[in-house]
Amino acid sequence: MSNLQKTGTIKVINELESGVSKSSGKSWKKISFVIETEGDYPKTVCFGIFGEEKVDNFVKFNKIGQRVDVSFDVESREYKGKYYTDLNAWKVFTNKGEAADSVTSAEQRQATAASSDDSMPF
């Protein structure tokens, strides 16, 4: 499971969480955000970012409504016989491409064929 990536629009940025590790005594930061993917059946996906530098960069460069590419890892952990899965984002980049909800290539071909003067009847 390497190089997992999703593209979508940021819908929610949750509050920053921080604390001090009980075992090491070091401070930590965490933030989660939600994107809505594109396509015929959009999905809502929540990612977490852990680490002071990554969290600070995410907060500095991202906002709600922004289209992003998210590179992430999947991690599961067990607690009292149940498993919990996290999607840990390690890279979030602004995506400046066209939105997927734009006209599809089939619709573009139909529009082009209909507008051409020399279209054939067959």
3D architecture notes:
- It is globular, with a radius of gyration of 21 Å.
- The longest helix is centred in the last third of the chain and has 11 residues, at 105-115.
- It is built from 2 helices and 6 strands; from the N terminus they run ββββαββα.
- It has one domain (4-115): Nucleic acid-binding proteins (OB fold (Dihydrolipoamide Acetyltransferase, E2P)), CATH 2.40.50.140.
- The chain has helices spanning 52-61, 105-115, and strands spanning 4-13, 17-20, 27-37, 44-50, 67-79, 82-94.
- Strands 1, 2, 3, 4, 5 and 6 form a 6-stranded antiparallel beta sheet that branches.
- It has 122 residues and is of the alpha+beta class.
- The model is unreliable at 99-117 (pLDDT under 50).
- Helix content is 17%, strand content 48%.
- Strand 5 and strand 6 form a beta hairpin.
